[in-house]
From TrEMBL:
Keyword Transmembrane: yes
Domain of life where this protein originates: Bacteria
Residue stretches spanning the membrane: 40-63, 83-101, 113-132, 139-161, 191-213, 220-242, 262-286, 298-317, 323-344
Name under which the protein is recorded: Uncharacterized membrane protein YkvI
UniProt keyword list: Membrane, Transmembrane, Transmembrane helix
Matches recorded under InterPro entries: YkvI-like (IPR038728)
Amino acid sequence: MKKTYWKIAFAYIGVIVGAGLSSGQDILQYFLSFGKKGLLGVALLGLLNALFGKIMVTFGCYYREDSYEGIFSRIAHPIITRALDYVLIAGNFVMGFVMVAGAGSNLDQQFGIAPWAGALLCSVLIVLVAFLDIDKITGVLGIFTPIMAGMILLITLYTFWGKTYDFTALDMEARTITPVMSNLWLSTINYYALCAMTGVSMAFILGGSLVQLGNAEKGGLYGGICIGVIVMVAALSLFANIDKVKDADMPMLAIVNHIHPALAVIYAVTVFALIFNTAFSLFYSIAVRFAGGDTLKLRKCLIGIVIVGYVCSFGGFKRLIGLLYPVLGYMGIVLLVVLLMAWIREREKIIFEKNSRRKMIRISLKKHDPEKEVSPEEKKLFHTLVDISPADSETLKSDIGKAARRILDGTDDTKTYAENNLPVDQDLLKRKFQK
């Protein structure tokens, strides 16, 4: 089952690492504007990604709800839930039109296309895709995330291979950049809160696709760690080239242009694809929220949202990040507090549910194995565990059975597999039923 949690980890990376990181503008304003000290903030950002990546994906698996509203209603007061709903809608809209502005800046910097024209192209594509097979389009666009990660690693290798830098001089140069806020640690938390706002809905969905909580925990944790590594190498590259990129709208693209113009074309196209994918996902999620399942209404809502978003994008990519991202970050801090408090409060229940589902899979393995027989006590325990689970009973039973069948198809020795991959704290289960 190791492939399962790595699949979730890579998907989570794609949710968080996208257009924002690929431009490099947010790293400049939030971190490197503090000089080399800003790299400590990047390290803290990696830790926050790992911690909250684990929390968000695990909550998705634990509750297995269809939407983020369903999970927030379980972990927060109804007033807080309503407030978070409004915050996420506003955050998605603002991030959406900032991405549209980024599309214009990207094409302008690389190809000399007027920013309004590049932003218009991105907006028109968003509307057109809403009338096509969305799953296939977004599936194709998903390949750009690993391409981007690979190119960032290539940029870092080129930057430091056989070269030395005067970090004191670079530190002084970096401090000439105007930071979005005066304190590095607040800046780091604010920026991660912004990332969490854009990623929480998909993180819940990723977790809800899993049955085993252990896989969800590892998927979110490992994905967060990988994000931390990617952001750090990008930040190191930007810091080493700070004198060349500090005034650029797309700093990473400016570095690639110094490597080779042809590579810069590939990078610019990749960035545009990531920006489009991010903007489409953000605007589409708002339209879905208000459409109520009506496809025609969804498309009309999306067109209206895109038009308003395009007009708002005229504020300029670099300027919009400096003005609006901090505000969104403060709004996102409320989300982080709610998630952390719920995690502390529900931790024991999550540990029990992890053991409970492992036990259910063990029983289901016996049920689907023609050479074994499930005892009446085990049948009773299985149904009891299903009934007390926070997840939907029928869906959980079905998915437990599917997981058991996949294990049976993949191994001949289910006993050894269960001992190695499905350990159960029997004492924990007993204590639960003795209360």
